[in-house]
């Protein structure tokens, strides 16, 4: 994994390139909505993709950064004196134990070009990335906490049913194509106290809703934002920030 963070007068962001042993490559861009220093941006980039690697059940992770401070603080060469650096370092150390092998190596910027370019793009602009690059806006610092939304009433059958049944009992649909789809989707979900959540790499996990629940949430959010004449994408983004999710939320919010 190659990571890099950048900040300037126009904003702050980070770029991450995750490569598998088979040379498959996954590219991520983060845009930070909070004030952040260069060092904090470097740590935010590192933490977010450590979480991604954990969700993907990566066992061995080698991280390459061009930040001397981040690499040397983790490797015990530099001491973290600043309070925020101490908090970030502690988070990295806690996540690192989830891997069988975890190491951070400092490399020159020339060997970290892709992540460096992506971080600068994220710091300068936000709306003009190609669709194959995943862009997600980070609202809260990793060292700050944010609660998960309250529960809403469940229905018996919905799009969630086959996922819940597979998580609970390992049961799959009879149709082989549908069964394959469920197997591919399920790693992104988990159950907590019989409530289905969708994993979120960069923020709180999202409470899954059935169509009736989604309609109710849309109505409440839209009525509250009507005076702003907000579009359906804005409404859907607001719903995600509240901690809710369903597969067609952007379409339904329209």
Strand content: 15-25%
Please tally the helical runs, counting DSSP H or I stretches of 4 or more residues: 9
Major β-sheet strand ordering: 5-4-1-2-3-6
CATH fold name of the largest domain: Nucleotidyltransferase, domain 5
- The structure class reads alpha/beta
In whole angstroms, how far apart are the ends?
37 Å
Radius of gyration: 20 Å
How helix-rich are the residues, as a percent range? 25-40%
Q: Which regions have little confidence, pLDDT < 50, spanning 5+ residues?
A: 127-132, 146-154, 225-229
Question: By CATH's scheme, which homologous superfamily of the largest domain applies?
Answer: Ribonuclease H-like superfamily/Ribonuclease H
CATH architecture of the largest domain: 2-Layer Sandwich
| The top level CATH class name of the largest domain | Alpha Beta
Strands, total number: 10
Shape: globular
Based on the structure, what is the oligomeric state of the protein chains? single chain
> What's the pLDDT, averaged over the residues?
75
Order of helices and strands: EEEHEHHEHEHHEEEHHEH
* Number of self-contained structural domains: 2
Largest sheet: 6 strands, mixed
What is shown here, in short?
Helices cover 40% and strands 21% of the residues.
């Amino acid at each position: 994994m190659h990571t890099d963070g950048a900040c300037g007068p126009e904003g702050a962001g980070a770029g991450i390139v995750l490569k598998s042993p088979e040379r498959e490559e996954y590219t991520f861009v983060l845009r930070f909505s909070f004030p952040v220093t260069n060092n904090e941006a470097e740590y935010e980039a590192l933490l977010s993709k450590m979480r991604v690697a954990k969700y993907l059940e990566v066992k061995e992770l080698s991280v390459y950064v061009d930040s001397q401070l981040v690499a040397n603080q983790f490797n015990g060469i530099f001491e973290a004196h600043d309070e925020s650096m101490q908090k970030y370092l502690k988070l990295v150390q806690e996540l690192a134990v989830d891997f069988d092998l975890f190491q951070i190596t400092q490399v020159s910027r020339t060997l970290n070009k892709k992540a460096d370019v992506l971080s600068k793009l994220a710091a300068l602009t936000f709306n003009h990335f190609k669709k194959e690059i995943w862009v997600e806006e980070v609202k809260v610092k990793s060292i700050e906490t944010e609660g998960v939304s309250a529960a809403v009433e469940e229905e018996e059958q919905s799009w969630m049913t086959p996922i819940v049944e597979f998580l609970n009992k390992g049961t799959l649909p009879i149709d082989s194509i549908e069964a394959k789809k469920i197997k591919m989707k399920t790693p992104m979900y988990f159950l907590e106290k019989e409530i289905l959540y969708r994993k979120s790499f960069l923020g709180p996990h999202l409470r899954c809703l059935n169509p009736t629940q989604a309609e109710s949430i849309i109505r409440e959010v839209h009525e509250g934002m009507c005076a702003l004449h907000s579009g359906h994408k804005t409404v859907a983004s607001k719903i995600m920030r509240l901690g809710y999710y369903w597969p067609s939320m952007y379409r339904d919010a329209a």
